[in-house]
Amino acid sequence: MKACILSIGDELVLGQTLDTNSMWVAQQLTAAGCDVVEHRTVSDDQGSTEDAIRDVASNKLCPELLVITGGLGPTDDDLTRQALAACLNQPLELREDWVEAIRDLFRRRGREMNQKNVIQAMIPRGATMLRNDHGTAAGIRATLSKDGRSVEVFALPGPPSEMKPMFLRDVLPFVKERAGGAVLLQKSLHTFGLGESVLAEMLGDLMSRGRNPSVGTTASNSYVTLRINARYDDAAVAEREVRQTIELCRQRVGDVIFGADEESLADAVAKLLIESRRTVTAAESCTGGLLAKMLTDVAGSSVYFKQGFVTYSNEAKRARLGVSENTINVFGAVSEQTVLEMARHSRRLAGADYSLAISGIAGPGGGSEAKPVGTVCIALAHLPTAPTGKRNADREDEVTAYARTFRFGGDRAGIRDRAAKTALAMLRFRLLDRPLPF
Ligand code: AMP
Ligand code: MG
Questions:
Q1: Nearest 5 degrees, angle CA 171-CA 174-CA 176?
Q2: Alpha helices (H) in 172-300, listed in sequence order
Q3: Neighbouring-strand partners of residue 128
Q4: Phi and psi at residue 86, to the nearest 5°
Q5: How far apart are alpha carbons 86 and 128 in whole angstroms?
Q6: Measured from the CB, is residue 71 less than 6 Å from ligand 1?
């Protein structure tokens, strides 16, 4: 079944409120096997609302369901019920039982009902009223017919706390019945370090349009996510096909995939640290504690993280971590030599198995030709691991350390985010005993 979503409100059109209703409704509909073909947003204007509703009835894609949210409030700018009545060619009729329910709700809150609230009990003739258990605005269900086609319309209140329970109670059963067991199963696989085009090349025909399950990529928060969507008439078949596609993605892309769905890169690193009973510390300059934050975002992080160091100035790098003055003077604060010293010393000071050190130029100022904004040096220091997997004696001359210089694009926040996540990736591949693939 195909569906359209219409959200109504000046605050949405003006960009003052994020349209989270459409996002949530689309997710619910999609998971129930419904094909969401269009989202639309209009202002609190009756004409625009009527046009949008009528357009759905004549849409080439032939949607059978329209979910509307917003515009059911008691004030003069809430005109969804009037617009819907006009499209249905029916007058609005007062539902006395709902006026009583509203009056009751006010009474229970120790207040008198305002006359303006009466409009919230007006329903187009022939339509079904949807009771609101969390507010005063009744919802409306109606069938809109045009040229032999019919669209089932559900108008729901705008506040998410009222809209969601009404959707789950009144819209979802209708969708499930019509979908007849069809499902859309979704899975996200997160990668870090390779660009979208490189991944697309590795994935090859898995990304062909029209493939089921489909594989697409999206980039955000420095991750590139592989999104797998499977549409089948049977949930068990969908699950099997998704499992197979995940396997194919893993074969082609490999370890660059660090997690699925809600998992972060720090979660993946945490898992490896906990499994191997290792600890980590962080010595940070340009990320100002962001790496330590990511490492401690994970519940239970005290097992592998005891302390970190934020050494923003050269003086702090010298005084707190013992980076030599000569290193900073000769090579600069943003250099592989400096981060190597930061990593070695912080690891020893914290008594950790691993240390990650970051120093870079997050911008917007401070860049030079040799070291432009986005230049970030990252080092990883660690004790060598004996073939038995046991730690070797904590001897400083046995500590292994390596550093890399990266050039990140983006703004200050993006550079810092990428720097901290690159450090996590360096540790992750070290823990996997594999070379960094980027
Ligand atoms: P309304 O039904 O138009 O009276 O909506 C009342 C309130 O619900 C608005 O002031 C918003 O705070 C919220 N709201 C309405 N539509 C949306 C939407 N699409 N996404 C998120 N919040 C919304
Ligand atoms: Mg509104």
A1: 105
A2: 172-179, 196-203, 235-253, 265-276, 290-297
A3: 141
A4: -65, -40
A5: 16
A6: yes
CB 70 near ligand 1, within 6 Å:
yes
Q: What pLDDT, in 10s, does the model give residues 132-173?
A: 999 999 999 999 998 889 999 999 999 999 999 999 999 999
The CA distance from 397 to 159, in Å, is 63
Protein residue closest via CA to atom 5 of ligand 1: 158
- 403: burial class by Cβ within 10 Å (0-12, 13-18, 19+)? buried
- In terms of pLDDT, which residue wins out, 374 or 184? 374
Q: What is the DSSP letter of 167?
A: I
pLDDT tier at 397, thresholds 50, 70, 90: low
User: pLDDT tens for residues 261-294?
Assistant: 999 999 999 999 999 999 999 999 999 999 999 9
Average pLDDT of the residues in 114-137: 96
Give the ligand at the shortest distance from the Cα of 20: 1
Tokens of residue 85, six digits: 């009545």
Rounded distance between C-alpha atoms, residue 314 and residue 332, angstroms: 9
In terms of Cα–Cα distance, which of 125, 39, 117, 121 is closest to 86? 125
Q: Is the CB of 139 under 6 A from ligand 1?
A: no
- 199: tokens are 């991944």
Q: Is 4 in contact with 59 (CB distance < 8 Å)?
A: yes
Cα–Cα distance measured from residue 351 to residue 349, given in angstroms and rounded to the nearest whole number = 6
CA of 24, nearest ligand number: 1
Q: Ligand 1 mean position to 166 CA, how many Å?
A: 14
Task: Tell me if the pTM is above 0.70.
Answer: yes
What's the CA-to-centroid distance between 72 and ligand 2, angstroms?
Answer: 7
d(CA 409, CA 375): 9
Count of all residues that appear for the chain in the document: 438
Q: Judge contact between 118 and 149, C-beta under 8 A.
A: no
**Predicted local distance difference test score (pLDDT) of residue 74:** 95
200: which residues sit within 8 A by CB, 6+ positions away?
207, 217
Q: State mean pLDDT over 74-103.
A: 96
Model confidence at 131: pLDDT above 50? yes
Model pLDDT, residue 387 = 46
CA-nearest residue, atom 12 of ligand 1: 159
Ligand nearest to the CA of 69: 1
